[in-house]
Amino acid sequence: MPHAPPPYSDIFDELLTEDVEELLGRFQLSDSVRYEVFADIWRQMCFSDVFRGIPSLAELKRFSRVTLATAVNYFLPPFSYQIRVGGLYLMFAFYHTQLCRPPVRIRLALKDWIYIKKFLGDSADAGHSDVLYIYRKLDAAKAFYYTAMPHVLAFQKQRKPKKAAVCAKFLGRATAVHELMCADILEELGNLQVHYEQLKEACPEVKGQVAMTHRDLASRLTDCMSEFISWQQRSFSSLGVKRKKAVDEDGEEESDSSRARLLSSIKQKSYSCYQEAPKSRRHRQAETVESLSCGAEQLQDPPARQKKRPPSLRARTQRSLGESREDSWTQTWLLSVPEQKERLPVRSTKQPAAQYA
Amino acid sequence: MAAAYPNTNIPDYEYAEVNTKPFHIGSFRQEWMNRLEPTEYSYQQQDEDTFHANFAEETGVGAETLAELKSICSIDSLRCHPEDEQPDMEVVPPNPTLKTLIQRKKRQDYRASLKVTKNRHDIYADELERLTAGKRPEDVTDLIPEGEVILTINVYYPAVFEKFTYNRSHMTLLMTGSHSLAELRDAICCVSDLQVCGEFSNTPDVAPDFISKDHYKSAFFFFEGVFYNDMRFPECQDISKTTMEWAKARNFPSFTQAKMEDTRMADLKVKVGFPYLYCHQGDCEHLVIITDVRLSHRSDCLDRKLFPLLTHKHRIVTQKCAVCHLFIGRWFTTDDHFAPSDPCLFCDKCFRMLHYDAQGNKLGDFLAYPYVDRGAFN
Questions:
Q1: B10, B45, B125: residue with CB nearest A58
Q2: Is the pLDDT of residue A273 over 50?
Q3: What is the reported pLDDT for A161?
Q4: Which structural domains are found in chain B, ordered by start?
Q5: Coil, strand or helix: which one is A197?
Q6: Which residues 156-195 of B are in CB contact (within 8 Å) with A?
Q7: B-contacting residues of A 32-51, CB under 8 Å?
């Protein structure tokens, strides 16, 4: 090739990522994990056209690799369950609509296998047969390469890493706090605390002088956790995502882990009782996508913003002395340049040239 | 869900997106074997009915649900245009809505206004891969077994090649875990192996009796602090000894040695994406990077005899004769009064025509050396 393509061109393409995030955004708004809905959005956006118009075979192969790498990216954590399902459907769609023959395969790395297994286990428990069916179909078509790492590495380090800013609204919510709440750790902690206090009381020389722990550790922990949970619900419900009914189902007779709680909220939408989204929701979708995408942009830093330079000594001095900048601007034009500096270009800024003052 | 201790057999990044920590190839393969069902890595492809039967058994869905799944989750659901109106895939659609397509359309319109000929590198980029993909051996014993690990190795130009030292790979080889390093060494072709030493202006017809490859047979690979020497032939010396002694004298961590022919690829403990060294001819050094390690797949070339498999070879422009500009230069002259420059390159015909008379006597005073062009392996 006349010039080598930039590194990372094989795994990330900005415009494609934007298109994919648009698709996944619509899928997220539909509030469903059904393949039908995904296929509908895919057809609406005419997404299989994304492979059209590529002049050379080499470029087509490279682009197919990029599409599959992007899809796998959304299939793995830290995204929410729904986005991960969207990533799986995207893998299926890109694999079967690509134009390369023989087709480019999907790379699954060993370190990600545990997350994939967990994802499939969760889907099976929740009864999402179409998720499993799509995965098994890809497997049967021998679409996977079982690799060491997700991308081919050739010791190329990018000077300006061109990584996609993770779309905040796609991220899965942290469930660690929920899991801590329902595990019996806090109860045990309280019991241990009581036991410790009792032992301390029993030794007259120690009591009252030594304190290894906070007395109210358990209660403070519980307070922190409930604060976090309520913040999480507030901030995520404001983005328009449907509130998971994790808290409401607290009193129900359920298995211990919050994983089951989270899944039960999706369980009601399992394959056999799928319902069409109401027509009103469909009309609203188009508007909310734009507003949300604006919101997402605010969350991400605009990449082209120039670095702000720190204020100069002069500016800082003036600020501390309380002078306003406008008053002290005296435009000193250099009428005579010192001889040795005659050939130096004179600064053409509005600020007075301090070194000649 | 994380393991209690980090499992070093699962490769992970040492520097993100650059290279991994060292891991043992054989153990990595074993980790995948522990996790996968045999059907997942086998070469056999299930037919549809078996697939549906297995799926129904695994998930316990009813026949009706299965039929529904079959019709909804089919490839036809991804079709964006009606079947009888398949669009032209080489042209961007007229009113694109996707951002990727909008930019591609701009490029297409720009390109249409230029007169650009096809790029030679693009056309031949995948040629080698296409030739060998999916090949099966005639003899079943030569078939690469299922679940074998395949490594992709990039070998780079030696450091003395000013042009392409840092990022263009000279050749890409595929190797299996059961091949040895000696086989990898034999597959690496470098022009310095073909160099002929000696001045031949007086005897241009005498075929040189040796090339450097036959004369200097020693070579070594350096992976993760171990020098793998080639000891197959009695002439081979241990050229890594000097480096090892030097390192010991200067308080470096000690290096160890092993034999190239006894080490299989699966025995290596290496980092993926990290540069290592191959040294031959005493001072011709090549960077070697293992770019990818994965399990074998049914679409790979499965004939063991064809490995190490060359999947990519960089074609370098050859230097032509200074007189005819047609043939590749084979003679290199210095101190030559007939030549326009010092040094000068000639093809065989022009060389003999210029420097020797009809009887084969040497005319004038010059020094001539046989020259092997860098593009000799094109």
A1: B125
A2: no
A3: 58
A4: 89-139 (no CATH), 143-313 (3.10.290), 315-377 (no CATH)
A5: helix
A6: 167-169
A7: 35-36, 39, 42-43, 45-51
Q: What is the pLDDT of residues B226-263, one digit of tens each?
A: 999 988 887 777 778 888 888 888 888 888 989 888 99
Picking from A332-346, B79-93, B219-233, which range would have the lowest pLDDT averaged per residue?
A: A332-346
Give the pLDDT of residue A108.
94
Asked if residue B205 lies in contact with residue B183, where contact means CB atoms within 8 angstroms, the answer is no
The amino acid that residue A73 corresponds to is N
- Of residues B180 and B80, which shows the higher confidence score? B180
A40: helix, strand or coil: helix
Tens digits of per-residue pLDDT, A259-271? 555 555 554 455 6
Each residue's pLDDT tens digit, A155-206: 877 666 556 666 667 777 676 777 777 777 778 888 888 888 888 888 877 6
| Closest to A57 (Cα-Cα) out of B119, B179, B192 | B119
Mean pLDDT (chain B, rounded): 83
ipTM: 0.85
* CA torsion through residues B293, B296, B300, B302, sign: positive
The full 3-state SS of chain B, as one line of letters, equals CCCCCCCCCCCCEEECCCEECCEEHHHHHHHHHHHCCHHHHCCCCCCHHHHHHHHHHHHCCCHHHHHHHHHHCCHHHHCCCCHHHCCCCCCCCCCCCCHHHHHHHHHHHHHHCCCCCCCHHHHHCCHHHHHHCCCCCCCHHHECCCCCEEEEEEEECCCCCCCCCCCCEEEEEEEECCCEHHHHHHHCCCHHHHCCCCCCCCCCCCCCCCCHHHHCCCEEEEECCEEEECCCCCCCCCCCHHHHHHHHHCCCCCCEEEECCCCEHHHCEECCCCEEEEEECCCEEEEEEEEEEEECCCCCCCEHHHCCEEEEECCCCCCECCCCCCCECCEEEECCCCCCCCCEEECHHHHHHHHECCCCCECCCCEEEECCCHHHHC
A111 → closest Cβ in B12, B92, B104: B12
The whole-number pLDDT of residue B162 equals 61
Q: Chain A: residue nearest B299 by CA?
A: A102
Q: Which residues of chain A are within 8 Å of residue B89 when distances are taken between CB atoms? A: 51-53, 99
B326 in contact with chain A, both atoms CB, cutoff 8 A: no
Most confident of the following: A44-53, A80-89, B317-326:
A80-89
Q: Counting Cβ atoms within 10 Å, is residue A336 exposed (0-12), middle (13-18) or buried (19+)?
A: exposed
- pLDDT band for position A64 (50/70/90)? very high
Question: Judged by CB atoms within 8 Å, which residues 242-271 of A form the interface with B?
Answer: 271
pTM (2 d.p.): 0.73
A vs B, Cβ pairs < 8 A, gives 205
Residue of B nearest to A116 (CA): B35
